[in-house]
Design a protein that fits this description.
The complex is a heterodimer of chains A (about 300) and B (about 290). By secondary structure, chain A is of the alpha/beta class. Helix content of chain A is about 45%, strand content about 20%. Chain A has one domain: Rossmann fold (3-Layer(aba) Sandwich), CATH 3.40.50. In chain A, strands 3-2-1-4-5-6-7-8 form an eight-stranded mixed sheet, sandwiched between helices. In chain A, strand 2, helix 2 and strand 3 form a beta-alpha-beta unit. The longest helix of chain A is centred in the middle third of the chain and has 29 residues. With about 290 residues, chain B is of the alpha/beta class. Chain B is built from nine helices and eleven strands. In chain B, the strands form two sheets. Chain B has an eight-stranded mixed sheet with strand order 3-2-1-4-6-8-9-10, sandwiched between helices. In chain B, a hairpin with a 2-residue loop joins strand 9 and strand 10. Chain B starts with a strand and ends with a helix. Classes of the chains: A alpha/beta (about 300), B alpha/beta (about 290). The interface between A and B is large, with 95 and 95 residues. Strand 9 of chain A pairs antiparallel with strand 10 of chain B, so a sheet runs across the interface.
Chain lengths: ~300, ~290
């Protein structure tokens, strides 16, 4: 075992990492393995647009982890396909048991302004992100409930938290994931099952691919800059790398984690909690004299 | 010049209230409904028919055109827009209402229900927003209002898939506002708690419904009677469509309250390059303890 693989905080635990074949998912797989977890690296091996499935992405990362002295297997599966996920989890159960940890980093992007977006571009992104998360949640939760233990990390995005131009499908799916995460966390609050969402900022091929699309600004906004200024999120000293995000994901997978139902934005050296939407101004729509229209514009700015 | 408006699910409580609010002289109302819902009433008494509503709206001087079709069918949104832009009409507003109140705990909701809710509510809203954006770019500086549920802003146990899908709709509106602003477009998500649908009644979804009402309530919150609630939401929709500036893009109408929504990051901390996951967790657990 190498120096890197001497962690034991997660020894005896099985971690499923979707999208583990590249970018942030790959970094998460390595980080969890370094803490002693056996890692199931699930990936369809597509490029950021969803094209070109390949087993190599998942098996390659599993080989990397094993070469460093860790335990890992690669799983070639499609999170957007409920049957594919169910089959993969059943095979995993037979081989290693059900996962105690699930990290859902599978992602594609098809950036385009909403008025130019095709139905296929819309549904492709929603299927991978929202339904991909849903399929895995439904697959791993029953065993976690039975054991009264689980650590789940979903992936949302700054786009889903605040809105962005050129990526409406991605933003809508990510917003749905954030709300789903908070809802599911609330449903299992009385158990030792934590469910948190990560909003990552890191240099990845996914972010870089956005720059080459119709609306390159979307990629730049997602990475850093104007969007972060609009949202009040901190600017890191240097652009974040996947391993920075993986460090926070790994933290949320530790047995000692007490945080649940939270959204954690992490980029570079900065970490922030992003709360749910909150009322900024509240006014009485109906006053004693009827509808109070003249106050509405002021309150709703 | 004729001002045109599009309202979907116009036979529903909220859609019909919005259509009635927008009806006036020199206005064209392009309305849709899902034929499946008309054919399969859910035992809630006599359902409004297109001819009933046409009669009522025409009395206000409005021209009414019906485009029945599924909300998640691209042709429905495109047909509505063609009707709205026909002749010398100028598009003024597009209001997306969708009746998709499916809810429950995650493991109790079937994948089929999830898919149907996402198709109807989220994909349907995207198709409408896309048609809206295209019209705005053609020179119609209009407003888009997507009606959604407070379950998206106040995620609570037992409220999926409605909560997740509603959150997606809210951000979709925010994205469309950003994308169409330079062409004169405005876009809003209106989270409403005013109709008498089962989802809106305290206890209508058991604990989830009661928890949602608790989340909505402030010390000034007063639920409105069913005959006034939808009209208040319709008033807000009318106000947003006809206010020329883009206000906060996520707005709530619940009972007697109207509210704007924002979010501000909390607990920001910096890590060292050699910080470990345990260091990160220490800070996050501290936050959890304080909350």
């Amino acid at each position: 075992m190498t120096e890197q693989m001497n962690g034991s905080k997660l020894s005896g635990q099985l971690a499923l990492v979707t999208g583990g074949g590249n970018g942030i998912g790959r970094a998460c797989a390595h980080a969890l393995a370094a803490l002693g977890a056996e890692v199931a690296v699930l990936d369809l091996g597509c490029d950021p647009t969803g094209a070109g499935p390949s087993e190599q992405a998942a098996t390659g990362v599993a080989e990397e982890i094993r070469a460093e002295g860790g335990r890992a297997i690669g799983i070639f599966a499609d999170v957007a396909d409920e049957r594919s996920v169910a089959t993969a989890l059943e095979d995993l159960r037979k081989r290693s048991g059900p996962p105690q940890i699930a990290v859902m980093a599978a992602a594609i992007m098809r950036n385009r302004m909403s008025f130019n977006m095709t139905e296929a571009e819309w549904s492709g992104v929603v299927d991978v992100h929202l339904f991909g998360t849903l399929h895995v949640l439904r697959g791993v939760l029953p065993a976690m409930v039975e054991r009264d233990y689980g650590r789940i990390v979903t992936f949302t995005s700054i786009a889903g938290l605040f809105g962005v131009t050129g990526a409406a499908s991605y933003a809508a799916a990510k917003a749905a994931i954030e709300a789903l995460t908070r809802t599911v966390a609330d449903e299992y609050r009385d158990r030792d099952i934590t469910v948190n969402a990560i909003s990552p900022g890191a240099r990845t091929r996914l972010g870089e691919s956005a720059s080459a699309t119709e609306r390159g600004a979307a990629g730049q906004q997602l990475a850093m800059g104007p969007l972060q200024q609009r949202t009040g999120l901190p600017q890191p000293k240097e652009r974040g790398e996947p391993h920075h995000v993986a460090r926070t994901v790994a933290a949320l997978c530790l047995p000692e984690c007490r945080l649940t139902g939270a959204c954690v934005h992490t980029t570079g050296n900065m970490v922030s909690i992003v709360p749910p939407w909150q009322r900024h101004q509240v006014i009485a729509a109906v006053g004693p004299g009827g509808l109070d229209l003249e106050h509405w514009a002021g309150a709703l700015r | 010049m004729t001002q045109s408006y599009i309202v979907t699910d116009a036979l529903g409580e909220l859609g019909s209230a919005v259509a009635a609010r927008l009806a006036r002289d020199s206005v064209r109302l392009c309305l849709s409904y899902d034929e499946r819902e008309v054919q399969e009433p859910e035992g809630q008494g006599q359902r409004l028919t297109p001819s009933d509503l046409t009669e009522r709206l025409s009395a206000s001087g409005a021209e009414v055109e019906w485009i029945p079709g599924r909300f998640d069918d691209p042709e429905t949104a495109e047909s509505l827009m063609r009707a709205a832009l026909d002749g010398d009409a100028t598009l003024a507003g597009v209001v997306g209402c969708a009746n998709a109140p499916a809810t429950g705990r995650l493991l109790d909701v079937s994948p089929e229900t999830w898919r149907a809710t996402a198709d109807t509510h989220l994909t349907g809203m995207f198709l409408l927003a896309r048609a809206f954006g295209r019209a705005v770019r053609l020179g119609h500086p209009a407003a888009l209002v997507l009606i959604t549920s407070p379950a998206g802003l106040h995620p609570i146990a037992g409220a999926s898939p409605l909560g997740a899908i509603s959150a997606g709709v809210a951000i979709l509106a925010q994205c469309v506002a950003l994308e169409t602003a330079k062409y004169g477009g405005r876009a809003y998500a209106v989270s409403q708690w005013a109709t008498t649908l089962p989802s809106s009644q305290p206890g209508g979804y058991g604990k989830a419904g009661a928890d949602l009402v608790a989340a909505l309530a402030t010390d000034r919150f007063v639920p409105l009677p069913s005959d006034l609630g939808p009209n208040t939401v319709a008033e807000l929709v009318d106000f947003l469509i006809h206010t020329p500036e883009q206000l906060a893009s996520i707005v709530e109408s619940a009972g007697n309250q109207v509210a704007s929504y924002r979010r501000t990051p909390r607990l920001t901390f910096a890590l060292r390059e050699d910080s470990t996951p345990a260091d990160v967790l220490s800070a996050l657990n501290g936050y959890a303890q304080r909350m």
